[in-house]
Amino acid sequence: MLCLSDSIRADAPCVQRVLCTMAEAPTLPELILAAWSLARVLARHLVEAVLAARARPPTSWPCCPQCGAGMRSKGVVKRQVLSLVGPLQWQRRVGRCPQGCATAQVAPLDDALGLPPQPRPSAELQPLGCALAVCVPVATAATWLGGASGVAVSPRAVWAWGQAAGQPAMAQLHAPWPAVAEGPLPTEDPLAAALAVAPLLMGADGVMVPLRPEGGQPRGTPAWHEGKVGVLARLGGHRTRTGHVVPRLQPRRVVAVFGDIAALQARLWCEALRQGRRHTAQVVGLSDGARGRWRLFEERLTAYATGLWDFYHAVQQRWKRAAAWLEGRTTQARRWCGWARHRLRHGQPDGVLADWADALEIEGLPDPARDTWRTG
Questions:
Q1: Has residue 280 got a pLDDT over 80?
Q2: CA distances to 178, 227, 262, 273 from 297, in Å
Q3: In 155-309, where do the E strands start and end?
Q4: pLDDT value, residue 369
């Protein structure tokens, strides 16, 4: 270990301290954490050495954008950036216009490295923080990111990174919808040959989500609002270890919107075109039978898809109508619903629909769901 520490860098106290911590680590977890710290220190020294080497050659100065005169060097200025391996420091030449134009100083090496003028975190640190913030709260994401990189990251910084990354992502997400409405169709996602011929399943439903009453503030009672969610998947097959083939949904695509059914309709239609709706022999639309989902099916899916009313909502609606039809006689209602649930479960809806049609005819009541959805 001492030979390794001497060969790495004898004049770097930080490296020597980490090497000594590794040599004295009593447990395996402490040894691994010390090794991770050593890896960050070595990576930081290597990156700084490469940056110092790139800053040594003569600099080719650009021209001033205002007067056209060639910029001149104003000396060497230190630059510091927070990165995944810790804070990086190096020196590079900066220049200004010799005519005194109101032009900010330039650093050709920063431009070559793709760095903005402000001392912001490096490009690989922000995507990692945004990815962590998708799965866990921003405070937890900041703690994990700080532990992995050795850099103190505040939750507010992670929140700002997510907001900055969300704006171009939303612009990219909204771009295909006007194009679909005007005529050009989106590019289809590549699919394997077995999935390309598999049935395409489409479903939509509403979910209740809690939102903060004050934007950016955790105070107050959460306000519950309904969001619209659509799911698209191919009904493929998966072979188990025993050799049996079982159905499996793959690949899954989810579209969601905090808005009305019309906003979901545009997103669902665009994603259906991406998933190869035009070249699929069998398309199935599954819904809970709500009026908004009926309208979505009639406007977009009737021409090429088969509509299915899902089993659980079908049983729920049958129970509500049976309770009203039998005037609260729960024994008869339960008996009839048990029979109807068994028939629906085993793919025999004709008897249930015929029995219900006779009951509606006796009572003189209309059935708004008749001839609209098949029960699946």
A1: yes
A2: 21, 18, 12, 15
A3: 200-211, 223-239, 245-249, 253-257, 283-287, 305-309
A4: 44
